[in-house]
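Example 3.2
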Amino acid sequence: MGAAPYTSPMAYTLHVGEKRYSSWSARPWILLRGLGLPFEERLVSLQPDPGKAGRFANLPGGRVPVLDDGAVRVWDSLAIVEYLAERHPGVWPADPAARALARSSCAEMHGGFQALRGQMSMDVAARRPQRRRGDAVLADIARIEALWTEARRRFGQGGPHLFGAFGAADAYFAPVAFRFRTYGVELGGEAGLALRTLLAHPAVQAWSDAGSSEPRLADHDLDVMYPEDRS
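Structure, written as tokens:
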């Protein structure tokens, strides 16, 4: 699937939350950075201080991430991915079957895995391996491992990432990779390779390094306590 040449006269602006915690902001940021697309970053802090309502008042739905492209504004991380795919090659795999699996996997991630989100909140600076995991979390981990294994076995011949070359699926699952690192989740085979490759990607490392240097907001589950980071 070809993408129309990008003709915007200005670079993108991406509004994000703190890198330490903002899993949804990580997805378009890592995708833009990984594809080498120029953008300006603007932090909209999730810090629960008196200015928080004002910071989010002008964002659609009061949430991050939000992408500005001149007069065009796009919100929700998956909508941002699709907007970028209309303008740039390499966001989704070129092969139709690979593209269908990549899109379906990202959509499943977008709306599912509630147990994983609830019990393994993202904190790129933390390391707290779990000794026990509930059945629902184990099922989510197994499903992600199956998705990654299928992607690698069917479409990973062109490189070490989920669909060979780096793209939207890798960016979309980067927060899962952070969670697996934090909570000591180990994967084998092709899924383990995908996990190690993703964590080693320069764009993923850049997000993680920046987030690890940020101050801690609070001991909380971001997905529950901070609905502003839910798109």
